[in-house]
Amino acid sequence: MPKPSEKILIADEDPDVLDLVARQSLGPLGYSMATASNGPAAIQRIMEFHPDIVIASLTLLGISAKEILVALRARGLESLVIVTAPEGQEKAALQAFRLGAKDYLSKPLREAEVVSSVERALSEVRLRKEREALALRLSEANEQLEHRVRELTLLYGIGKAIVSLNHLDRLYDRLMEGARYATGTEMGWLLQRDDSGRELLLRSQHGLPQTVAAKLNQPWDDGVAPLVLASGEGLRLAGEGLRRFKIAQLCKSVIVVPIKAKSECLGVISVGHKEAREFSEREQAMLEAVADYASIAMINARLFRELENRAASKRPGAG
Q1: How far apart are CA 62 and CA 79, in angstroms?
Q2: Rounded to whole angstroms, how far apart are CA atoms 222 and 71?
Q3: pLDDT one-digit tens code per residue, 295-318
Q4: ∠143-148-152 over CA atoms, to 5°?
Q5: Domain 7-132 has what CATH class?
Q6: What is the pLDDT of residues 69-123, one digit of tens each?
Q7: Chain segment 136-186, per-residue pLDDT in tens
Q8: How many CB atoms lie within 10 A of CB 24?
Q9: Which of 106, 119, 155, 314 sits in a 20 to 30 Å window from 214, CA-based?
C-alpha cells in the first residue's frame, strides 16, 4: 500500500505524459508527487525533493535520463530510476540499464504498466529502508549494551576501591570520579555530615572554583543539599528550577542524591553541568548507585573509628 512519505518525481518533456503519470496514474494512489519538464529542472528537483523513484525520459531536454543516472551515482543518491522512451530506443534503454536504471517503459505509456513498474521499484526501496532501520536499531542496541557494560565495569571498579583503599579521602575522590564518568559531567562534589550532624563538610570535589575547592574538609552549603537531606530523595534541577539556589552561580543543571544508610542520611553526592541540560532518570539512577557505595565507605569508616576508640579505651592507663 502506498505511503504518503514515498516520493516520486516524473521528468518528461511532454506535458501530456506528466499529466498522465502524475495526476491520473500515481497521484490518486497517495504518493507524494513532483514533476520536471527538462533535465536541469529534474536535477534541481531531485536535490530538493529527494524522491524514492524517478521516472525520467531518455529524450528529456537539456539532460537526459542517462545523465540523471550518472549524476545520481556521482552524488551517492539512492533514488531508483525508471526510464521511458518512444519505441525503437531499446539500444539507449540498454545503456541506461548499464548505468543503473531499474526498469524501462515504452511510450506511449500505459497506466497499468506505470503503476506496476513503480510498485516493483518501491518494493526494493521499502526493503532497503527496512534493512537500514534494522541496522540502525542494532547499532543503537549495541551502543546501549556497550554503555551498560561500561556502567557495570565502573560500579565494579568502585566496589573494589572500597575494599582496597584505606585512605578515606582517596576513596571519596574515586567515588567522585565515578560519579562524573557515569553522568558525563564536568563538575561534582561530595558532602558529608560532621560528627555533630549539624553541618556538611566538603569531602571531595572536581571542577568547582578554587574559592570553593579551598574549603575541602570544611563546612560548605550548596543550597540544595539540606533539602535533599531533609527529604531523603534525589533531586534533578535545571534552568528556572535551579536559579533560586546558591549552586546556580556555579552550574546550570544538577543532580543531588542523598547518601543513606537505612533511614539515616550521611551526606549527599552531586554532579553538575556548566550548561543547561536536563539529566535523565538513568543518570540519576547511576549517581544513586555511586551514593550507595559512598554510604558503605562512610559506615565502614565509622565502624573503624569506633573499633579504634574501643581498643584505645582498653589500653593500660587509658581513662
Answers
A1: 20
A2: 61
A3: 887 887 777 677 767 767 776 665
A4: 150
A5: alpha beta
A6: 888 888 888 889 999 888 877 777 788 888 888 898 888 988 999 999 999 999 9
A7: 887 777 676 566 666 667 666 666 666 555 677 788 888 888 888 888 899
A8: 11
A9: 155
Output the nine-digit C-alpha cell for 295: 554510604
Nearest-angstrom CA–CA distance, 11 and 37: 6
* Predicted pLDDT of residue 166: 61
Cβ proximity of 235 and 224 under 8 Å: yes
SS3 category, 25: helix
Domain boundaries, the chain: 7-132, 165-313
- CATH code of the domain occupying 165-313: 3.30.450.40
Q: Where are the alpha helices (DSSP H) in the chain?
A: 15-18, 39-49, 65-75, 90-98, 111-164, 168-183, 210-213, 225-231, 240-243, 281-313
